[in-house]
Amino acid sequence: xxxxxKEYTSFLCKFKITPNQLYFLKLTETEDWENMYKYxxxxxxxxxxEIKDLIKKKYLINNNxxxxxxxxxFIVTDKYNKLLKTSPNSILGEEFWELYPSFFWINExxxxxxxxxxxxxxxxxxxxxxxxxxxxxxxxxxVYAISRNQISMGILKWFNSEQWIEIEKxxxxxxxxxxYGSREL
Length: 185
Description:
two-stranded antiparallel ribbon
């Protein structure tokens, strides 16, 4: 948990935004107006200064016609979407990408494994892998598979088919056979 908070804090400091601003951007991006209005009715509001700062930094576009800000008249920008790619969780996707072998061999033929758009892959990784615990499981399984030359498909297929789950099963069987032996009772 502490590591996540350090990354979160670094992220906020790097892009010079407040937690409140990040929450506003996330609610706007997902068009979660119900929670937007619930939050503003029951908690501290988003300040005009915070919103104007997001507009100035080009993370947000104001489509309000009048000076009165209606939360559902904002949209996030491409700059904000690029900002998300550098979010703390994208670092996890980057780690997986770098660790995954670039090639494998079949019948003395070198086959590329990363024939997919890296940025799109990392975005999908971030969407699917919600926390570091799952990420660590994936990395451990990948290291295990690499050490045994078990990578025989592209990165996208390996990830989408959740191969780490099968590798974890294999590891458990291997551990059990070492602990209990292979003799019948």
